[in-house]
Amino acid sequence: MMSKIKSFDELKSVQERLKAGRDPKKPCITICVGTGCLAYGTRKLVDNFREELAKRDLTGKIDFRTSGCHGFCERGPMVVISPEKIFYQRVGLDDAGEIIDKTVLTGEIIDRLLYVDPQTGEKYVHEDDVPFYKKQTRLVFGQNSKVDPESMDDYLAIGGYGALGKALTGMKPEEIIQEVIKANLRGRGGGGFPAGWKWDETRKAKGEPKYIICNADEGDPGAYMDRSLLEGNPHLVLEGMIIGAYAIGSSQGYIYVRNEYPLAVKNINIAIRQAREAGLLGKNIMGSGFSFDLKINRGGGAFVCGESSALFASLEGRAGEPRAKYIHATDKGLYDKPTNLNNVETWANIPFIINRGADWFAGIGTEGSKGTKIFSLVGKINNTGLVEVPMGTTIRTIVFEIGGGIPGGKKFKAIQTGGPSGGCIPEAHLDLPVDFDELTKIGSMMGSGGMIVMDENNCMVDVAKYFTNFLVSESCGKCVPCREGIRRMRDILADIADGKGREGDVELLQSMAQGIQDGALCALGNSAPNPVMSTIRYFRDEYEAHIKEKRCPAGVCRALITYSVDPEKCTGCTLCAKVCPTKAATGVKKEAHTIDPAKCTKCGACRESCKFDAIIVR
Amino acid sequence: MINLTIDNKKIEAEAGQTILEVARENGVVIPTLCSHESIEPSGSCRLCVVEIKHGKRTRVVTSCLYPVAEGLIVDTKSERVMNVRRLVLQLLLARCPESEQLKEMASEMGVLAEPRFTPDKDNVKCILCRMCVRTCEKVVGVSAIGFSYRGTDKKVCTPFEEESVTCIGCGACAYICPTGHIEMETTQSGDSRTIWGRTFKMATCTVCGRYFAPEDQLKYISKTADVPMENLAVCVSCR
Amino acid sequence: MEDKVKNIIKKYGSDKSFIVPILQDVQKEFNYLPKDALFSVSAHLSVPISRVYEVVTFYKAFSLKPKGRNQLSLCMGTACHVRGAELIASNVSDILGIKEGDTTADLEYSFETVGCLGACALGPVLVVNGEYHGHMNIAKSTKILKKLGKKGATNDEQD
């Protein structure tokens, strides 16, 4: 247990002592134990490493660290061996002994564990050379691989809480706010509202106490950067929040975290306990006279609680229904007191701004959007993972250079950003520099940073239906346009997908969208028609094909497609007949098979199993 | 005093008033379905939206919640406003095809049912205006009814959709319901009434002998207002 | 039951703003939210039962019905959707004979779909009794159900 740190000088000496105790040349094995990698069974690999190190009497002689998410989730389990930063991916759960014997002890590279670029066939030994990492600017996220999220020492050893020390001892609250305003840090949770202005309003608002909240109710499907930050580097988020609390004049904070993120809840709880023990949370922080503490609230599984007023309702112990925000939360938020809400990634940027200054931060990014942004690049993409790039990086760079393009030689069709409030961006906009304003201009939005890549096999009507369905099940039900309007839009979209679309449906959807945008009570309702609007805007021909020709060009909408076998490609391996649950696929061994359309339920099992691409879906 | 313009009419208002209040005081009609003077506005029906211009920005806001401000320009019948109202009414007509009130309102506003919306069968007449729930909680103070579920599954009910132990049978929810969705049945003799699936025994007036209020309601008033039961034994007309 | 609920509430300092986490802990204790437990939460926190019921039914994490011995949740996040999660959902529903969100009559299986688990690289993801199974497909989901002992998961000749 750490004794209380009573001054900035004392913090500095603790940092120095921890740093000095670490030999940068000493071999260190780092394993990613983020949720993604754990899902690959990485826990067993960790146990194996510990066991193998002990067997060789190397425990303590070789550093071994479990860290948060490194971002390259596609290639887990991942092991990095320092100081050379040798990068092993898709490591087998029993490879621990071999890695220690060969690479750690004798420097030999294990060829089969290296990353091979699927496009060029080139092999990479060092982490920094891998194209996925090379094109990124890993500012906020980069610390993840340097710290064990359960170790406050790790965080202090890389200079952690230094920004807090600097802020508490050398800066007035107003100066901190001016720095954040000057940095033009915009909210990473979706809206992109300048954080500094919000802080300023909350500070100036009348009413006590003032609350600050970290919104970790990351609900956009396909976005998980906030979870990875909270679970991989919780002290960074805490440090940002404590600085914010000091600047705003708040003594009580909350972290509202999704219940679906158990590891994040666990790690942030550990971090809070450690920070309290070290005197970095609680009364008289670092001897400055400033006091602040935090509570964690787990959400209950409601997307709408990411909306600030619904989040307040949930924190107050009620159903998460938004209220009209004609009076700002900075004046009347949680319990009607001045409240400042920022999302995880926004808070995580604060220590960097304080440490390195607003000018440095504003030097990164575009005119209107400064700094970096973490995106979760998912869907039909080779390198699924978390990607951090400067604002203004083009979609093309993100998808093709960092993401490694589309798997299976398929064609890029669209990229969806902004979650259920966002839109689908077509190929024509691949060279769009991604920032808050550019995305809004073309009918999408930044949102929390989800990027879902779609290829030629994805149907845009189906995608619109998917998001609308999601919103139907997540609408709180308070106001009429959202509760009743979205489900009617969904019904029309379902009709179109079922081949029951009518002339005039697209126009009706557009007029409804306008009414919902203007009429819904909260921002989620207002933006709910976006996925429909953007797919109509860019893929109207696909809607027309469904409505007029009763055809799904991508081969997705079940009512409009039939399954058949290409006799040229079929080898008669009989696999499709074996997996077909309704015995619709039949045939004699080594002869071309057939599918009986009367029995076929279009479940897709045959296409999924066929190794010869012989199942035709039209 | 605050100066604003509603539909090109210069109007003076007091700080803290909402656009809806000021409009009504000045004879400007804004349709509503979830607003009542005895309960706080909730802004759920969205029928009362108006378009405002304040500075350079134009936007659609809920008049029952939006506070008046100096120099505000309000248009209660702009194209965007009428589009929202039409959509809201069409959606509610499809939700509650049996509601006479909605049909009347629609015909007054010249709104026709949207044929593309298949009318619901299961919502009867509830438009989820929330007035009953708010009345039960804030005016009566028993919170016998509430909402369950969310989104399209949301409905007003007693907990677990069973007889509520806290309900006093006062019927305030039925009185305030704008569409007549909440049913309250009284026996021919008037000795009992049934609401939300529970039957309440009615008390008789010690003077005129008529049934006048549920016994549970009198007990509740006695308890909360600290009035002896004897003082509550006479009906309003005999008092 | 009363004592267990009381202890949980005490842990949160009888603060009604913690009703959501309190209910989460109660559900963890009993595997669902029994009606009696909700009445004691209401009494001890001085929150009307109608408000407790409202909260319980509003949030998806809560269940008023006992969950099955085996719990399956399929991620329906966007990344999983574009990789065919819907077809897997139909398959699991068909084999178990229940709709998503339901539990089989013998209380053996609960099947639900969830928003996004944030394991997009592994999508589609099926979580079986807390264990993640990535890169799910129709055949794999059939196999998993068969392994759990579900009769009716067909294709005996397959493995």
Count the helices of chain A. How many?
24
CATH superfamily of the largest domain in chain A: NADH-ubiquinone oxidoreductase 51kDa subunit
Distance between the first and last residues' Cα of chain A:
65 Å
Number of domains of chain A: 5
In total, how many beta strands of chain A? 19
Instruction: Note the beta-strand portion of chain B.
Output: 15-25%
Lateral arrangement of strands in the main beta sheet of chain B: 2-1-5-3-4
CA radius of gyration of chain B is 21 Å
Task: Give a verbal description of the structure.
The complex is a heterotrimer of chains A (618), B (239) and C (159). Chain A is of the alpha/beta class and 618 residues long. Chain A has a five-stranded mixed β-sheet with strand order 12-11-15-13-14. Chain A has five domains: 115 residues, Glutaredoxin, CATH 3.40.30.10; 203 residues, NADH-ubiquinone oxidoreductase 51kDa subunit (Rossmann fold), CATH 3.40.50; 84 residues, Ubiquitin-like (UB roll), CATH 3.10.20.600; 89 residues, Up-down Bundle (de novo design (two linked rop proteins)); 56 residues, Alpha-Beta Plaits, CATH 3.30.70. With 239 residues, chain B is α+β, with helices and mostly antiparallel strands. Helix content of chain B is 25%, strand content 21%. In chain B, the strands form three sheets. In chain B, strands 2-1-5-3-4 form a five-stranded mixed β-sheet, with helices on both faces. A four-stranded antiparallel β-sheet of chain B has the order 8-9-10-11. Chain B is globular, with a radius of gyration of 21 Å. Chain C is of the alpha+beta class and 159 residues long. Helix content of chain C is 44%, strand content 13%. A five-stranded mixed β-sheet of chain C has the order 2-3-1-4-5, covered by helices on one side. Chain C is elongated and about 50 Å long. The chains are: A alpha/beta (618), B alpha+beta (239), C alpha+beta (159). At the A-C interface, helix 2, strand 11, strand 15, helix 18 and helix 24 of A face helix 2, helix 4, helix 5 and helix 6 of C.
